Amino acid sequence: MRRWLRWLIGVGIGLLVLIGLIFLWNKLEYFTPHPLIAHQRISITLPYSPANEATNMISMGETIAHNFYGGHPGIDFQWDHSVPLIAVADAKVVSIKNSSDMGEPVVTLTLKSSGYLIVYQELEKVGPGIAKGTTVTRGETVGYPHCHVNIDQNGASRTSCQTHWEFGYSRLAPGFDRLCPLTYFDTDARVRIEKLWNSVPASDRFKQNAPNICSNIYFNRDQ
Asked: Which of 104, 119, 160, 219 is 20–30 Å from 144 (CA)?
């Protein structure tokens, strides 16, 4: 084999290795630390301030609308108007993705804090200055829930806003390990979310199906 050809092959292999290392680095930014690697537990708040308390919620683990993979993989927080959503901890933005919900465009925002991933789905838009790679502080506005305008049989309009929120960590292998966030919430957040859940009527079909904030496989799943 000619020397120039060997050199060209060597350069090509080197470039492939470099591209692979860059790809792996970006993936490790998102996935690490692995759950088998020790990491420090964090304390988080709710993804909205006390001035903008949610008016309704659907808990983790319900199987009426999510009868797969252990049930509803997060918590849906709902309002009758748009509110600013906040970072639940000091974190870094690792992903912003466009997707759709019932045919309407929405945004999914993923934050990383001390190895934990915090996911805000069904956003109308992200907050000002929020971009991949930026850091956010606890309480900073990171986005806004997606809102629908529903028309009832009498022709009256009603606004419904919602975000689907998840907490956990990712594995090096594909998949997101969701955690029940209750033991990670600070005392104030725990009181607030329990008050909200208690306000959901016992007749609510989701509450009957999943009576705890974290039900089904997510019950006490906090490690």
From this structure: 219
